[in-house]
Each structure stands twice: as C-alpha cells, then as structure tokens.
Automatic annotation (TrEMBL):
It is an enzyme of class 5 (isomerase). It comes from Aquiflexum gelatinilyticum. This is Ribose 5-phosphate isomerase B. Keywords: Isomerase. GO terms for biological process: D-allose catabolic process; pentose-phosphate shunt, non-oxidative branch. Belongs to the LacAB/RpiB family.
Amino acid sequence: MDKKIAVGGDHAGFEYKTKLINVLEAAGYEVKDYGPYTSASADYPDFVHPLCNAIEAGEFKQGILICGSGNGVAITANKHQGIRAALCWNEDLAALARQHNDANVLALPARFISFDLASKLSEIFLTTEFEGGRHATRVNKIACK
C-alpha cells in the first residue's frame, strides 16, 4: 500500500482537511497539502487542478478533496482524464468507489458529514483494493480518448 497521499479542497473543507492531515500523518502517511492554507474564501479549482495533475503525473496514487458539498471538487477533478473522483458520504460508497470503480480521488462533503465519518471514509478509501475483473473492463471505458 502506497503511504503517500495528496489532499486539498476549499475554504469550507479547510477545518476538516487540517484535522484529517493530522490523522493521516499519525497513521504513517506522507501527506502533501495542496491547499487552501486558510479558511478565507477560496476557489476550489485553484487547488483541485494541481492535486489532480500530480496524481496524473504519478506523484501520488490517490487524493482526498474536501469542500462544502463535495460536488465542486468532484466535478473539477473529473475533468482530468486520469482521475476518477467519487463523492462519498457513507462507508459503503467509499468501499465501492475503490472496489468497483478504482476511484483514485475521494471527495468529501464537509457540511453534510461529521469529521469522524470523514476520517472513517478516508481510512476505508485508502485501504480498500480494486477488485478488477469485470470492473476493470468498465473502468477502462471511462476516459474519453
């Protein structure tokens, strides 16, 4: 399991992101924070695109993005051909995003879930393996070429 992870989001996700970095580092992950670095109003694409570029370049296998609804960061991330971002708000979705979709970015909705749940979803996402098989055939058809 790769212990390098990229994190980012927007001002609405800043508090969760900051706390999650501490949790991830305590669990032995090497974390790169793509911002924002304060809770001041910020435009999530400014942080999402660099994070996704780094994943596409192979610097990281996975990332976690946090904004108010999770939608903005997920939509932006999914503009990248090499990114499969999954918006998750319960444990089953986090597991299935990895098992069936080989998602490489977890999008979390800070305004709609507790921090404890966000932390649990991150753990599930980072430790669940892709099942491959019939799912790999489908995943290989996602990117526009």
